[in-house]
Design goal:
There is one protein chain. The protein is an alpha/beta fold and about 150 residues long. The chain has one domain: HUPs (Rossmann fold, 3-Layer(aba) Sandwich). Helix content is about 45%, strand content about 20%. The chain is built from 5 helices and 5 strands; from the N terminus they run E-H-E-H-E-H-E-H-H-E. Strand 2, helix 2 and strand 3 form a beta-alpha-beta unit.
Length: about 150
């Protein structure tokens, strides 16, 4: 079983494509995981644009993210893969590791945005954290093709 981690960025299509190839070779089971952003830091405000934030807004966002996962799964299922969309909340790298362990993943596939400098120092790199802590093989798909 392969766990593919997606964030709906430019890397998503490549991550899903590579994970599907690997899953097909390993028996055809693929889990698509998206770790959703947690609650905003400031209660009542969205941290991105400081607009008014309600629980209904957040619920709509989560429903949209769930639907995006289903749209990713549909063509893979048409190829004969068994695909399970998963939506989780929490610290991204830790949630990926927890889900991989819970599911007994043979491989974890995720994209790397290649952040460097100050952003990497302050925010860290999810791919790097998963790579260093995962007990199973991790496939890192670069955002930009070679």
């Amino acid at each position: 079983m392969v766990l593919a981690c997606v964030d709906f960025s430019d890397a998503t299509e490549r991550v899903v494509s590579q994970a599907a190839v690997l899953a097909a070779a390993l028996g055809g089971t693929l889990h698509l995981l998206h770790v959703a952003a947690g609650e905003p830091v400031l209660a009542g405000y969205d941290k991105d644009d400081l607009s008014s934030f309600t629980r209904d807004d957040r619920a709509d966002q989560l429903l949209d993210e769930r639907e995006q996962l289903r749209r990713l799964a549909k063509p893979l299922e048409a190829q004969g893969l068994v695909v399970t969309p998963l939506l989780a909340m929490g610290p991204t790298s830790q949630k990926i590791l927890d889900e991989a362990d819970r599911l007994g993943a043979a491989f974890v596939v995720l994209g790397s945005h290649g952040h460097r400098g100050l952003h990497h120092l302050l925010v860290g790199d999810v791919a790097e954290a998963v790579l260093h802590k995962a007990p199973m093989p991790v496939v890192i798909v670069p955002v930009r093709p070679r």
